[in-house]
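Lab meeting, action items carried over

1. Structure of the two-component assembly. Owner: GW. Status: complete.
Input record:
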Amino acid sequence: MSKILVIAEHLGGKLNPSTARAVSAAAAVKPEAIDVLVLADSVDAIAADAAKIEGVSRVLTVARAENAHPLAAVLAPQIAKAAAGYSHVLAPSTTFGKDVLPRVAALLGVAQVSDVMSVEGAHTFKRPIYAGNAIITVEADPTATLVATIRTASWPAATTSANSAPIEALTLDVALPSHTRFVELQSGKSDRPDLQSASKVVSGGRGVGSKENFDIIYKFADKIGAAVGASRAAVDAGYVPSDLQVGQTGKIIAPELYMAIGISGAIQHLTGIKDAGTIVAINKDGEAPIFEIADIGLVGDLFKLIPELEQAIS
Amino acid sequence: MKILVGYKRVVDYNVRIQVKPDGTGVVTDGVKLSANPFDDIALEEALRLREKGVAEEVVLVGIGPADLTAHLRNGLAMGANRAIHVVTTDAVQPLTAARVFQKLIDKEQPGLVILGKQAIDDDANQTGQMLAALWDRPQATFASKVEIADGKATVTREVDAGLEVIDAELPAVITTDLRLNEPRFIKLPDIMKAKSKPIDTIELGSLGVEANDHLKTTHYAAPAKRSKGVMVKDAAELVAALKQKGLL
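Predicted assembly:
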């Protein structure tokens, strides 16, 4: 039978919602237990959040000063040690999971399945390749520990209402390297909803024209309670910071509503939004590729249309 | 210092790939092949470090069939000093690639290994991290800025929360993100010069690494298509449509 260890992602003492999405994927394996592993300097608040996630059997915590920042070289040996006795080790396919989990897989001497979209069996999964232009079914060795990252856009977050899993402190006898050190995190902090977990996202592209003009996107997003995203063109042009980039090389998201404004719709951008519920495109070029995948399209000048939209909403 | 750079050949990023109707693979016959874009960025970064005097030698490493040589010549034309071609006709998965690099590191003793953050064919994003684990050295993934001084690399990483800066003692593995640099174009005289640069060929089997498939791909499918959308004529109609769907 399967026993699954899910690695919790957290920042600033808060559990990242991507963890609950990884738990959903773990539940699809129909295991006998799902344990969540929290590695941090101060674990209590994070562990309490993790214990509420539906389907979690136990929350295991490792509180060490070295775990204050998510350094793969420091976390991976601890995760590899904690993996003993588990059939599966899973983490969300965020920059955190992508950084740390292959290091864990190599320490365990096993392959990794990246970006699991669906679970076909305990060791059989579907995942995207070629920027999402093909979906493959892969089978992993059933006798080895299965290490996989979970494509968060493909899985709903497990609910957090009814569960209260026991929390147990874990002592791992692992020597940690000091060759890698955290210096700082320059975060693009904002009061807006988080791009990766927001139910609505408004994205601007090259058509917005300048950093100053991007205010119109921020204002409109705030009006409808949406997160703000951007195309690679808008990031490269310096209109917005790179952590807002949506696409193959940025964030892959699946909000209920995605509004692409002044975005032509290059393949690399479309890869990031394919799983969105409803895609709305606003572009002055009626031939733009974004209209091929948009559920609702509107051709026209965004500087004229956005004020009209705001008026029509209120 | 010597820098090893991973150089994978993939289907060109501009090609819209087709899944074979019988689900056995994607069509690669007659399709344009190019260097993985993230690997060109890795090579460019290594060349810039050599130009700054941080490194003396940039060594390209490619794993693939005999005709990979032509592709390695492109990297040499871009400016690498020499290339190592690990010859195999099998498709190589990340864990195998990492084991191959580990063997080459034992031999070459580089101060730095730079790889792309992911290959645009398998989209795995694993090889650099796996190599750092096998080598027991630091990793700095998704790098958008690299500074090397006093035996360490200070690397700015593109993470979901913003930009993270870490210090990694050398030797280390760095994987490149898109914004690290803009790779240079190859000039014609450099293509001529590249013809005389050395390429060592090594059979994969002779390294003591097996190219076994750790993961078996049993089926390929095209992604689900989205149903055809509708066009609306003005802002009011768009808002009405979104309200009807309960999205506003």
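2. GW to write a short summary for the group page. Key points so far: The mean pLDDT of chain A is 96. Chain A touches chain B through 85 residues (CB under 8 Å).
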